[in-house]
Design a protein that fits this description.
heterotrimer; A mainly alpha (327); B mainly alpha (279); C alpha/beta (291); B: 279 residues; mainly alpha; MetI-like fold; 2 domains; 11 helices; C: 291 residues; alpha/beta; four-stranded antiparallel sheet; 36% helix
Amino acid sequence: MGANKRAQAAGACLAMRRPWRTGNTGDAIARVIAVGLGLSVLALAGLLIYELIDKSWQSITEFGPGFITSTTWDPVAREFGAAPAIYGTIISSLIALVLAVPVSLGTAIFLSEIAPPWLRNPFSFLVEMLAALPSVVLGLWGIYILVPWVRDPVEKSLGSHLGFIPLFDGPPFGFGMLAAGLILAIMVLPIITAISRDVMLAVPSSQREAMVALGATRWEVISGAVLPYCRSGLVGAVILGLGRALGETMAVTMVIGKGYNITASLFQPASTAASAVASEFNEATYDLYVSALVELALILLAITLLVNMVARLLVWRIARSPGVIRE
Amino acid sequence: MIVSAYQRRRATNALMLGLCAVFAFLAVGVLVLILGFVLAKGIGSLNIDLFTEMPVPEGEPGGGVANSMVGSLIIIGIAAVIGIPVGIGAGIFLSEYAGHRLGDVVRFTADVLTGVPSIVIGIFVYGLVVLRMGNFSALAAGIALAIIMLPIMARSSEEMLRLVPHSQREAALALGISRWRTILSVVIPAAQRGLLTGALLAVARAAGETAPLIFTALGNRFLSLSVTGGPIDALSLRIYRYATGPYSEQHDQAWAASCVLILTVFVISLAARLLLRRR
Amino acid sequence: MTVDSRHQPEAAIMGYEMRIEHEPQAPVSEAEALAAGMVVRELNAWYGSCQALRDVNLLAAPKRITAVIGPSGCGKSTLIRCLNRMHEVVPEARASGQVLLRGEDIYGPGVDPVVVRRRVGMVFQKPNPFPTMSVLDNVAAGLRLNGFLVRRSQIAGTVEKSLRQAALWDEVKDKLNRPATELSGGQQQRLCIARALAVEPEVVLMDEPCSALDPVATLKIEDLMRELAKEYTIVIVTHNMQQAARVSDYTAVMMMAEDRAGEMIEYGPTRQVFTTPEEKRTEDYITGRFG
């Protein structure tokens, strides 16, 4: 009988009790490799933190917690303090948010609620292309196009009309905190817009319909039904944008000048943690200098990690095409 | 003039909607502004020399950035060879093998890693590789970019692999095909378009990075083809050096090089998006 | 239905207009099932801490069709998936008990589930051909990816044989290199059957194979089942009682207990189960009073 024969043949080469068959070892090896690669992500994170602490240890032990509060950065006297850099990082990012958030939200609202479908896709595409612009190119544009414009007319007129406000006090350098804030605003605009748009699109239409049925205007539907519903997602988007701004290096370095003090004036040249590290690293000639710069980077890492973690917890699982947004 | 509540609401409506539209066009306008200027300033200096000549001493006219382009290709090549397989592997882990707890931890870590400033990665690799090797190198630069690409690739690969319906895996397993063969011959081919898209986007991202290269590749006025031998140049680095220098000939070349860089990044991103849409 | 079917079970069957197209086969003894078919003893299955099957006992007679019927959620699919160790593919799922294939326990120590699945094939509810492969590659997938070294010529031969067995050869012989997704639903399901047959299993399990198909395709597959039963041991799960009555030689009836675990309440020759069931619950289910 055919079946018996087949079964006999099957029994001969398919005896079930053979745990060392190729299939099984293959699976075991594959599992080890896969788990290894997965753990490599964790190892990378751990190694990153370890390496940074290790290379900044000299500076940490030398300056202690005073590093964060000291405003002196004097390579010659071997005294380093991070306060102006941290201040610059925070202020430039805040300016960026103040400028970018309204525009981002407006754009996101436009894309998700107002724009006709045929306009939505090309527009979104363009905004995403803004995200794809390399930072150094933006910096180049910043130096030769943005800064001159900031110097005159922006800072000039702000200075002459509102010069009594400490923010707008001082000669218009062009290079400085304001320019840095502006360019950061341009850089975080796409990410806040894209995430906000996705979050808004995810609001169920039943919510909108309920508002419409109550006789609301288009804007009232948006402000009354859509925005409150996705509030936490929007906050998350903004915080993710903040995270991006904090870590941005090239464009900021190229337009912020190289001042190192804490002033209220937005016109003054300044530094962020990232710009300080970027511009001085190649000049750091002795170990403590390097170590201080690495400690600056470590502080920057700590701040961005914190901000990003908070943002993640808020944004959670927003559906977005992978890799689209540069963070 | 008495304005009724209704009229006020309508006015607010028109105002706010108009404002949103203005903002949207502002956002796109900024993009157009930037692209426009880069093209306008760079087109004039875009010539064949840019691609074929080496940089000339400061202040002299002429020359090109061929060494930078070659360097970029080498560095990105190394980054892709390291970052894409490891990234996809981590994605396979997350989608096919990870238990709940471990998977969540790895996923969260990858998400957080995507937010690490690239300059921090640059310093990390400086300490890890450059100091140990004793010199700057394309390898160090490639490793830095690969580290930047890794979490992005891992998450995007995971998402793409998850899109493959479970019934496919079941069909293969029920035929007596072992797990690893199922993943290799059924799941990955089914997800290959998405995986390729993710890889292209990660490469596009890496191509635009500059900060990590400062600490790993350093830059080089001359052509270098060596992977571990010494400093090597990259297009983004050269733009940075030229832009911040005082020589106007170099500024012109920086604009032209920017055109090339933008075009490359845009083309890769566009290809990735088209690939994904042509389902 | 106005007939009081409690007293006239035959009428219940007639009321469903059952087609019996095959001659009832001679009953199979347990010894025969042990030697050449599958025997299930005290099978229990869990998803995590939730018990899905309790103490199931079953015979799958060789060269016969055994149908497993019951209301939805009673564990039919879980049962059939335990027969080729697909159950444990779900995370946190486990099973205990004995499932004997030709006398060997597939849950015994050191047994490789991958090998079990080569000997016990499965066809799923929704046809799932591999979309990135052609018709030919689909049928050959089991052979190629099993790690067997097969020559090109062997593959062509096996593919044709399997497609003929699945009554699909004539329809696709000119389309072997077309993507499998171009076939109709019924054709895709027969393709999946051919794919399962290509690795030459001893048992073929079918989990509601017709529920995603139209009536014409369904009848084709039912005819196919009877053909295949001449060579293979077949176990099918179906929620369609008429189908079970039409097609199977033996029927097992499952019900969900109060704690949501599935139990087998009756097993016997189909004719007997449908005309003179031993359990009241079986009769209630068959006559539509419940489930």
